[in-house]
Amino acid sequence: MNMYQHGMVALFCWIEAISFPHVNTNKYIEYGSVILFNITYIFWNIVCFYMNGVFPYPFQNIISNFELFAFYLFALSLSLLTLWSKRILFHLKFSKQIKID
User: Fold this and answer.
1) So what's the pLDDT on residue 98?
2) Distances from the Cα of 90 to the Cα of 12, 44, 62, angstroms
3) d(CA 58, CA 47)
4) Which of 34, 36, 65, 99 has the most CB atoms at less than 10 Å from its CB?
5) 72 in Cβ contact with 42 (< 8 Å)
6) How many beta carbons lie within 10 A of that of residue 75, not counting itself?
7) pLDDT for res 4
């Protein structure tokens, strides 16, 4: 993995996310935007394949269509899980009052 293309960006995003106060917005807007971004990214991957004859990532060229679908589903699930954990972290750190029933 290219550390500066993926790893450092993720690290800086998490540092910013837990260092400064944020407001939890409407969860449906957040989840919808993550799903829309993932669908757009999948579409971009497919466009690259049809224009160049190969996928952007080499491992995508050697897996079957079912495995490719499973990969996209895994990536979407991981994105939603990350968003879910972010909302929990923000709630625990920045909420004014936490009710424990």
Assistant:
1) 47
2) 16, 31, 40
3) 15
4) 34
5) yes
6) 13
7) 63
